[in-house]
């Protein structure tokens, strides 16, 4: 039996990833090694969170067409569209669908659908640095599952990017209104605060993101 060490990467109370280390038997990880890695969890968590800042959503229609995979009961591919094959390369997959195992991200989503008998979705950072949206749903009357792979729009990535910059819940609410093109007075009315408070929140957001204007904010954080 091999030794295993699992470390949850947490930053500011949120999980940003999980890392597993394995060591061949009969050796195992020492207590000092486990303590060291668990002590590094916050550092690695902040690093993983920060990596989301460098990724960008993709504008609708600016990239590949959505791709569709249909998987059978034994994870065999029932059908696949050409764009889906291209999207799979974003996961570092260059095998042949139907012959080589599919990426973990796709398989795990399919298994979630089978376990819950409902729809499932996930956002995954691709090899090119763009975000990919995956949707999976039961298909047909059997155990088949259809998976749609497409470019993730800005609205689905905004919460992740905002969290990566360490923005508060109120600051995220304000950013959503900025993305909608709302002015200071309209934002104040919607959030039931004063225009002065809106400007104070914007100043805090600008400082965290490293910009000086709303236009820079949208360009820095959400532009593809």
UniProtKB/TrEMBL annotation:
Residue stretches making up the HTH luxR-type domain: 160-224
Keyword Transcription annotated: yes
Keywords for this protein: DNA-binding, Transcription, Transcription regulation
Superkingdom per UniProt: Bacteria
Cross-referenced InterPro entries: Sig_transdc_resp-reg_C-effctor (IPR016032), Tscrpt_reg_LuxR_C (IPR000792), WH-like_DNA-bd_sf (IPR036388)
Chain segments annotated as coiled-coil in the UniProt record: none
Protein name: HTH luxR-type domain-containing protein
Organism: Kribbella koreensis
């Amino acid at each position: 039996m091999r030794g295993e060490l699992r470390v949850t990467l947490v930053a500011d109370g949120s999980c940003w990833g999980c890392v597993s280390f394995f060591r061949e038997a009969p050796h195992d990880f020492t207590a000092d090694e486990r303590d060291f890695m668990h002590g590094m969890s916050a550092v690695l968590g902040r690093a993983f969170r920060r990596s989301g800042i460098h990724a960008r959503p993709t504008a609708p229609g600016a990239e590949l067409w959505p791709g569709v995979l249909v998987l059978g009961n034994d994870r065999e591919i029932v059908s696949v569209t050409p764009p889906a094959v291209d999207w799979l390369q974003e996961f570092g997959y260059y095998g042949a669908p139907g012959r080589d195992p599919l990426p973990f991200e796709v398989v795990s989503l399919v298994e979630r659908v089978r376990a819950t008998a409902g729809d499932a979705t996930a956002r995954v950072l691709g090899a090119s640095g763009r975000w990919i949206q995956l949707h999976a749903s039961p298909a047909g009357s059997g155990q088949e599952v259809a998976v749609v792979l497409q470019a993730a729009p800005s609205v689905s990535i905004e919460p992740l990017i905002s969290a990566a910059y360490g923005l508060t819940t109120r600051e995220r609410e304000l950013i959503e209104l900025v993305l909608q093109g709302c002015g200071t007075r309209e934002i104040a009315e919607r959030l039931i605060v004063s225009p002065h408070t809106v400007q104070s929140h914007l100043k805090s957001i600008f400082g965290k993101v490293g910009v000086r204007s709303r236009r820079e904010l949208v360009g820095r954080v959400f532009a593809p």
